[in-house]
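sorry for the late reply, my laptop died twice this morning and i had to redo everyting from scratch. anyway the thing you sent over, i finally got around to it. pasting the sequence first so we're on the same page, its 279 residues, then the predicted structure underneath. double check i copied it right bc i was rushing
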Amino acid sequence: MRNLLTFLIRHHFFILFVILEIISIILISNHSYYQRTTIINSTNQVTGSINRSFHSIRDYFGLRKVNQKLAEENAILRSVLSDSLTVGEIREMTVKDTVYGQVYQYIPAKVVGNTVNRSDNFIMLNQGILQGIRKDMAVISPAGIVGIVKEVSRNFCTVLPVLHSQSKISAKVKKSDQLGTIQWDGFNYRRGTLTDVPTHAVVAIGDTVITSGMSQIFPEGIMIGTVHDIDKDEGDNFYTLSIDFSVDYNSISQVYIVRNFYKEELDRLRALTGMEEVQ
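ok and here's the structure:
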């Protein structure tokens, strides 16, 4: 209380000045239409600026929720695209009907751990067994392929990414449908190699490389990258293509885990015939 009195006594001239200014403004605005309009407009402008700044700050901190919602909506849309459906023809006498059955389901996930500077990198996602995630599911981003789920806990999973020495993913050159295998050389995280492309294939720098569809893990047509360079050893019948990855693996945050509804059936059939699994 003493400090308050001391403050008021010390600054009483300034406080009196502020009070008189406020009274003056009120009197002017009450007795002059022009002045009142000017004051109201100025006040509205200041208030509008403050509200706009406040809403901008609130919208910024709400971006995480908005991004999550968009990821969920995109996953639903991906799941109903024609690439995620299969067509089965049902014939009964002269009746022919076409039934669409869903092949792929897209589950949104967030990256909670990631490395790019090792020869064997890893990615961790915030989805696990309780969310329906299982081993050997594909992981993609809006820009292209990411990797394959390898270990799963109740609420998280780890991904063996493209940037791993054991990663070998079936791919093809989009323009010519020539098949090959995508691998990483362990150095530049923005670049990989496409091997086993026969030398009779017509390949050019800038050609698009996508997933082949020969895998029961990755859907066909997922972006991988573009041809950066073409190399062939003397006497070799296959090209080694340097590929610029479409995904910046150092900055991924939102991804999709892809579930193939027919994978278990295909795996059982492959086991019976002794076919090797293709990633």
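Residues 85-99 have pLDDT under 50 and may be disordered.
thats about all i looked at so far, will dig more tmrw
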